Amino acid sequence: MLALAPAPISRFAAAPGQIAPARRAAPEVSAAQANVAMRRPIGQLLLEMRAVTPGNLLKALALRQRQEVRLGDILLAHGWVREADLMAALAVQWNAAVVDPCRDLPDPRLIDRVGAEACLGAGMLPWRRVAGCTVIATSRPEDFARLRDSLPEALAPYAMVIASETSMHAALLARRQTAMIRRAEARVAPSESCRTINGLRIQRVAWAVLVVAVVALWLAPVASFAVLTFWAVLTLALGSTLKLAAFGTELVGGARERRRAALPPPVVARLPLVSLMVPLFHETDISGRLLRRLARLSYPRELLDVLLVVEEVDTETRAALAATQLPHWARVIVVPNGPIRTKPRALNFALNFCRGSIVGVYDAEDAPDQDQIHAVVRRFHERGPEVACLQGVLDYYNPRTNWLARCFTAEYAAWFRAMLPGLARMGLVVPLGGTTLFFRRAAIEALGGWDAHNVTEDADLGIRLARHGYRTELIATVTHEEANCRTLPWVRQRSRWLKGYAMTWGVHMRNPVLLWRQLGAWRFFGFQVLFLGTLSQFLFAPVLWVLALVSLGFGHPLHGLVGDGGIGAMTALFLIAEAITLGVAAWAVRGREHRHLWPWLPLLNLYFPLGALAAWKAIYEVVTRPFYWDKTTHGLFDQPQPALDKRRAMQG
Question: What would the 3-class secondary structure string for 20-47 be?
């Protein structure tokens, strides 16, 4: 018996004060290994208790040979054993007591000494002080000897009791829920977060700029229009050049990657545990849509940890979850209410409960490729630790709904299949999408997670990854989701994205010199074009539309200032930029699934003007409601197109 083991179950139940204290010094490694080897196997104990069938136990043992996962976790993931029976067997195996920390709540002072996040990460809970000994509840007794050496010396000696992970999480939330949610709102450093934005100062600056612009247009309309035109043309030229360079880089690099992909994939000897967070808000079709799509993933169930993240105030979704029989690999994380209610805040809170070394993010309407997690694990296995993030390709399964859905699909195809992969290959900053994102757990925690106050937390995170020396790569695995194909909701969604771009640019440009040093000149330049340039293009698009009228034979207000040559050059640039946009989009939708979009590509010229309206709405909200999250409603056009339906049926 290890010296650190507490009293037997019956003894603890009769006299809690008689728990045998643990010595601070760890036993010799060889002695500890010998002691563990002498313990009765957990499988044998479960068989004797008739808590598992022999057939299921044999299958679990076979799976454990190929994976870095505990036998009990395999049994739980497949529903082959009840959690209470597993805890009882562990108690017998380790001669320890079983406690229910939900019934007998832990001492919050002990939690504070260790830290709530540290407790969750270690799968333990400082429970009580009994007779001068700190009692630690854990569901991983085999790790206790190593765990105790990381605990505060002042709380020694330590003793161990057994508790289920579910009960420990509930008890921890009962005692420290408020502290944990406050931490989720402020995990990112103040210098890199939107939460330190001075709203009053922004309002004053905005009013000052507006007054200056109105006065300038009144006193010198031609000169003012010339300045706006110059800026719009400059950002158009830089943006089009970057788009063309990214496209060319992807053409060359993508061909090489496809040749490498034809080779047999590398074998990962020990597959890691992967946690998938799915934020939910006002979602009711949980079992019929979300769980069915996640169940298609071919990754082993015992290595899949799905967290359905729902807001406390969202009674609609919580009721749907309560009425749903969740699979054993999925669990619900309820995010407490607070002063803000955003997706990144919910992700920060749920991150504490993730078990995997790889953490992924999906949206409720996502339909990922069947082998997506395997592809992600292989890519992380091939790359070094500096590759901290993998971004999958986002696509739409309802492009035939209407013209807006067709244009949105073409735009997404160009962005995720040409622009972002090219930016990554060029070594530039990659603005992430909000879903089909996968991170090394250590890296995302080192960065402080997501900025809870940024409404485009994904793009912001891409910048912070680059600032701290991490790399992002695109991976050729596709997740299909629903295209937002109603005009007003599209404008609201796009305005939120552009508002986030404006806030992200403002936050990271607080100290331009530091940003230059962290990114380097090349990536600093790319950041300016991607964020400030994109925002400028949408805001000042009407200025460029005047050039389109010139190509139709109309005059231009600056003709007297720049002459025929200047007007001709600007018009030519405008037409070339449009040709680049249409050409990249045509290449991006060349595949069998989206080739039908080719005749609709000219309508992109009617589609992008909606972005100008969204941009001005975004600027208005930056001033008036910077943290307002204008959520997009999904599930309205949730019928996969026939080609996608057929492909998924072939996958099984």
Answer: CCCCCCCCCHHHHHHHHHHCCCHHHHHH
Stretch 593-621: mean pLDDT: 89
Burial 513-535 (b: 16+ CB within 10 A, else e): eebeebbeeebbebbbbbbbbbb
Using alpha carbons only, give the angle 454, 455, 457 rounded to the nearest 5 degrees: 60
> What's the chain's Rg over C-alpha atoms?
28
DSSP state of 98: B
Distance CA(241)–CA(247), nearest Å, equals 10
pLDDT at position 24 is 39
16-52 burial code (b ≥16 CB/10 A, e <16): beebbbbeeebeeeeebeeeeeebeebbebbeeeebb
**C-alpha pair distances (Å), 204 with each of 191, 499, 532, 535, 618:** 21, 18, 21, 21, 17
Tokens of 601: 């590509």
Residue with tokens 């539309």: 545
**H-only helix segments in 323-400:** 343-351, 372-382
Strand partners, 480: 367, 395
d(CA 509, CA 516): 10
Whether the CA torsion 91, 151, 132, 22 is positive or negative: it is positive
179 vs 164: CA distance, rounded Å? 23
**Calpha distance 141→163 (Å, rounded):** 10
Rounded CA separation 256/263 (Å):
12
**What is the rounded distance in angstroms from the CA atom of residue 295 to the CA atom of residue 324?**
14
Q: Full-prediction pTM beyond 0.70? A: yes
Angle at 506 between CA 501 and CA 509, to 5 degrees: 120
Sign of the torsion angle spanned by Cα atoms 583, 585, 588, 594: negative
At 145, is the secondary structure helix, strand, or coil?
Answer: helix
Tens digits of per-residue pLDDT, 417-433?
999 999 999 999 999 98
Q: In which residue are the tokens 């607070």 written? A: 338
pLDDT digits (tens, 9 = 90+) for 224-258: 888 999 999 999 999 999 999 999 999 988 767 76
Q: Compute the distance between CA of residue 453 and CA of residue 344 in angstroms, rounded to an integer.
A: 8
